[in-house]
Amino acid sequence: SNRTTYLHHFRSAPSLFFFFFFLTTIIHPLNAHMLKTIRIFHLLLLTGWVTTLLSCQSAKKSYQSGNFETAIEKAARKLRNDRTDEDNIIYLEAAYDRLYYQVKDRVSFLRKEGRPENTVAIFDEYSVLKMYEGMIKPLLPLYIESKKRNAQFKFISDEEFIESKKLAAEY
To answer: For 7-16, 55-64, 86-95, which range has the lowest pLDDT when averaged over its residues?
Structure first.
């Protein structure tokens, strides 16, 4: 049922394209310049329609290519309009989870390294997570109907973020 809801957004794009295509085709062009303008208009309509269709899986493609930050941004943007879109909820949850553990692993490595200048890098890593948390929190709760549960996100604690900020400022 989610797929039909998802495709519902694109049913009007082909209709709109063909409406304008036939409308401009039945109008008899008065000269060659008008005919050229109509052809350019058709090309722009077709390009817009194809772009719309190709962008529908962008969060999925970003996630699959390992670009978790882009996947989070795209899924969150789409979920602002439709919070029931399960595909985007699942990719948002998975992409954030992968990013969260990447950041935690990097912070753990930087701490083990024990260099004072790493405090700035640690703060930068946590700042990235905080930015994505800021995109996700206004969308919550997100319910995944097929799994009968809410999407789950691990956020860094404010205390941990503040501590990293203080240490970075001291350096």
So the answer is: 7-16
Cα torsion 99, 137, 132, 48: sign: positive
pLDDT in tens, 32-61: 556 666 667 666 666 665 555 555 558 889
Phi, psi of 148 (to 5 degrees): 55, 45
Which pTM does this prediction carry? 0.67
Strands (E), the chain: 143-144, 149-150
Residue 46, C-beta contacts closer than 8 angstroms, at least 6 positions apart: 17
**3-state SS assignment for residue 103:** helix
- Cβ atoms of residues 119 and 170 within 8 Å: yes
